[in-house]
Specification:
The complex is a heterodimer of chains A (about 500) and B (about 130). Chain A has 23 helices and no strands. By secondary structure, chain A is mostly helical. In chain B, about 70% of the residues lie in helices and about 5% in strands. The chains are: A mainly alpha (about 500), B mainly alpha (about 130).
């Protein structure tokens, strides 16, 4: 195909994002700006921003690829990624906003009042962030390959460089409206070509090739250990969303706990609209692009369909639009993640040696370079599966910390650290093995592919047991912290002195 | 100098309902601020109400969406049934699940806000 239109679209999205990032440098820099922004941004704009940051390469490319290759069971990925927000809504949204914590380490410090718990949380933010970044870089590589035939590393390096430019020029994370725009761009980029693809399919006399009637593909739960795998996937995605570093930060932009809840419901609606679409690409791919399964290139199916089904100028325009949407997905998610990693690394590791802005830039660069190395060194796991493994780590670490920290007075610092370390070590070991290409047969293989059903309960047990063993050492300000987390802001009560911009007051 | 006389009589016609009784207002809030046993009871009851609501929503989620794999295993004919030409599992997981999630979320927010309203009525009651 002619690569020019696609490359133009990708370049345009990248340039626009860098330009807006540079412009935003003067507008918003500090956490105080989030306070300011929070007064002018309503729940729908805020929800669009969360959706914009959340819909990543896995959602835009990966889901369709998995559906094409493996069928019905893969529909649980988008369902889980949406349902995660319902779990977040009922257990976490309002208390997290009311805590005033800006990051997950902030929350750990507020709730259990321990520098060790804070540092453990910081290390996990970096781990989850990097795991989540690898498939974004990989997706960028796939996109450029589908457009131009360039090798994978070209796209990965391109996106790393663009993200670092964005971050160094001011960090677009703080610009809510840009992220909000990214959501709508992704929705349109997915919806518009799909209309033409479905029309073409109808004109093709509704061709439903025999490939759709394969029982192992069209029926759920046909594979080995598939019930375990499905429930483990459900647990990881339902519980992992609340522990993603780039999602949590966005809740800070809400005016108060009540607004945080309403925003989350809006997010549920927006994600539901989007996630209906990718599986349709997967099904069409089964009819028109089945050869991708044999080539191991299923993640490119979204980008390949317009050329195969439409062709001509319309096909090229649709490909360009999809490529632009895909790049918007990599850039918004990646820059959110790099900023989260950079913030945590610079605050907790480099702040003694460098002045803050320099430390932040250095840390971001470090995070991006390490991720790039991992991307090029890993064995090319399916994009959506790689992202889901990051969810498994989040579900095995921050989910117990948030749920127990918010709803159980008994959580102590030692318990929190014990749980974070247990869940983090177990899940990271499984993920590391999967990324290194270890695929044992039978049950061990199932455990490594979807570790959450084992690692999440293990983390909860460790956190509860550790807390019960040290129950005489409850945090000093526990009662006022609980008042802060659970009471509506308009009631005048003593909520303690914690403030995320004044660290060390506790 | 004026001559000292008896203080002027004031007739009380009704209790001063429009004026806040400082003791009452301080008491409920300061019970919580001072972490007295009564204050802790207020906090625990708020947390318990909200947590019960959360578990109710998650219970409905588990009993509907969460039991779909069990349904597919226990009633294998549901795997191949088609509705409007679409296999039932695809229809449920690809479409029907999403409005359920949004409705559950919406219902939760309404109830949670009502719970908080009763709590603040309780704390700020005059």
């Amino acid at each position: 195909m002619n690569p020019v239109t696609g490359v133009v679209a990708v370049t345009a999205v990248s340039m626009a994002t860098i330009a807006i990032g540079a412009f935003g440098l003067k507008i918003s820099r500090t956490t105080s700006d989030f306070y300011v922004a929070s007064r002018s941004v309503g729940p729908v704009a805020n929800a669009s921003a969360i959706g914009g940051e959340y819909l990543s390469a896995a959602s835009f490319l990966g889901v369709a690829g998995l559906v094409l290759a493996r069928g019905a069971d893969m529909l649980w990925y988008p369902v889980g990624w949406t349902a995660g927000y319902l779990v977040l809504l009922v257990f976490v949204a309002a208390p997290l906003r009311r805590s005033g914590a800006y990051t997950l380490p902030d929350f750990a410090q507020l709730r259990v009042e321990s520098p060790l718990a804070r540092r453990t949380a910081s290390a996990l933010v970096v781990l989850i962030g990097v795991l989540y970044l690898v498939p974004q870089f990989q997706g960028a590589g796939l996109t450029l390959r589908a457009l131009t035939g360039a090798p994978i590393w070209v796209g990965a390096v391109t996106v790393a460089v663009v993200v670092l430019l964005i971050v160094a020029s001011g960090g677009m994370r703080s610009i809510t409206l840009v992220q909000a725009f990214q959501y709508w761009l992704k929705l349109v980029a997915m919806l518009f070509p799909l209309v033409f693809l479905l029309l073409a399919w109808r004109a093709d006399a509704g061709r439903a090739a025999g490939r759709l009637d394969v029982a192992a593909w069209v029926e759920p739960l046909t594979g080995e250990h598939s019930v375990y795998l499905t429930y483990s996937l459900i647990l990881a995605t339902f519980l992992g969303t609340m522990g993603l570093p780039h999602v949590v930060v966005r809740f800070y932009t809400n005016r108060d706990g009540r607004a945080a809840r309403r925003t989350t419901v809006a997010v549920l609606g927006l994600l539901s609209c989007f996630y209906v679409l990718p599986p349709v690409y997967g099904v069409l791919g089964r009819i028109y692009a089945f050869d991708l399964v044999g080539k191991g290139r299923t993640d490119s199916v979204v980008l390949e369909l317009p050329q195969r089904m439409l062709g001509g100028t319309l096909g090229e325009l649709c490909t360009a639009l999809l490529a632009a949407g895909a790049f918007a997905a990599f850039l918004s998610t990646s820059s959110g993640l790099v900023v989260s990693i950079g913030g945590v690394l610079s605050q907790d590791l480099l702040s003694h040696r460098f002045e803050p802005v320099r430390a932040f830039r250095l840390a971001s660069a470090l995070g991006a370079v390490v991720t790039l190395g991992l991307t090029l060194g890993s064995t090319g796991l399916a994009v959506a599966h790689a992202v889901e493994l990051a969810f498994a780590v989040a579900a095995s670490t921050f989910c117990p910390l948030l749920l127990l920290g918010i709803w159980w007075r008994g959580l102590t610092a030692s318990g929190a650290v014990a749980g974070l370390v247990t869940g983090g070590t177990l899940s990271a070991a499984a993920v590391g093995a999967a990324m290194a290409g270890v695929e044992p047969q039978g049950w061990n293989g199932a455990l490594l592919a979807q570790p959450a059903l084992v690692t999440v309960p293990a983390a909860f047990v460790a956190m509860i047991a550790g807390s019960l063993l040290t129950r005489s050492r409850l945090p000093a300000h526990l009662s006022s912290t609980m008042v802060r987390l659970h009471t509506p802001e308009h009631i005048d009560l003593d909520r303690g002195s914690y403030h995320p911009e004044r660290r060390g007051t506790r | 100098m004026s001559t000292p006389g008896p203080p002027q009589r004031v007739r009380v016609t009704s209790p001063r309902t429009g004026v806040v009784d400082p003791r009452r207002v301080r008491s409920v809030r300061s019970e919580i601020d001072d972490q007295t046993q009564l204050g802790e009871v207020y906090m625990r009851s708020l947390m318990r109400t909200q947590l019960r609501l959360a578990f109710l929503v998650i219970g409905v989620l588990a009993a509907t969406v969460g039991l779909l794999p069990v349904l597919f295993v226990l009633a294998p004919e549901t795997r191949t049934t088609t509705v409007l030409g679409v296999p039932l599992p695809w229809l449920l997981l690809g479409l029907v699940v999403y409005p359920i999630l949004v409705l559950l979320g919406w219902g939760y927010v309404r109830r949670a806000e009502r719970n908080e309203q009763s709590f603040s009525d309780l704390v700020e009651r005059r």
